[in-house]
Amino acid sequence: MTAPVLYRLAQPADLDFVVKSWISSFKGAHAAGILSISPLPAPCPSCGAPVPHDFAAVMTHTLRAVLARPGCSVWVAYNPRAVPPNDLHGYLVSETGPNIPTYRAPAYDLVVRRGTEPLIHYMFVKQAYRGFGIARALLEAAGIDPAKPLLYSCKTSDVSSLERAGKLPSA
After folding, report:
1. Residue-level pLDDT, tens digit, the chain, 171 residues
2. Which residue among 54, 140, 155, 170 has its CA within the 20 to 30 Å range from the CA of 41?
3. Strand partners for 91
């Protein structure tokens, strides 16, 4: 890779790429889970037209809410010589001080604690730029040391592979 790669906090114009690529790359993940999707379209609150509740529609709403949380940050890897939106090589979405829900037996009462570990929601690097250390540099830019305890919310086959290889020993 000869083009320079720099790192910065995402700008509002970057978030469409973040949301669309997150949805596209996570849709086939083994841990994408079951979404509560209505079998019938719901009317749009502003125009009344039916809005289908498919994976992308539900995830767009969910991801926009995650990105708006206090403590959530998005770091992007970009080429300063390229023209947006083609300048982005990847991103890291993380959160500090997240609420961590757990269920305590025997009654499975919900218990919520404030997390001290960083929470990685998602990391994405375009296929053409993988293997150049961009993911590692994004973690460094965000101040996250993968050798220390961390949490993640979206597990993909790549995360599973990194765990098996011992590259995410604390996740």
Report:
1. 567 899 999 999 999 999 999 998 887 777 765 554 555 566 676 777 766 667 787 888 889 999 999 899 999 999 999 988 789 999 999 999 888 878 888 888 888 888 888 999 999 999 999 999 999 999 999 999 988 888 888 888 888 887 888 777 665
2. 155
3. 76, 124
Q: What whole-number distance in Å separates Cα of residue 10 and Cα of residue 114?
A: 25
- The Cβ of residue 133 has, within 10 Å, a number of other Cβ atoms equal to 14
| Rounded Cα–Cα distance for residues 46 and 32 (Å) | 30
- What is the residue whose two structure tokens read 């080429």? 79
Q: Is-contact 29 157, C-beta < 8 A?
A: yes
What are the φ/ψ torsions at residue 8 (nearest 5 degrees)? -155, 165
Please enumerate in sequence order all residues whose Cβ is within 8 A of that of 56, keeping only pairs 6 or more positions apart, or say none.
23, 27
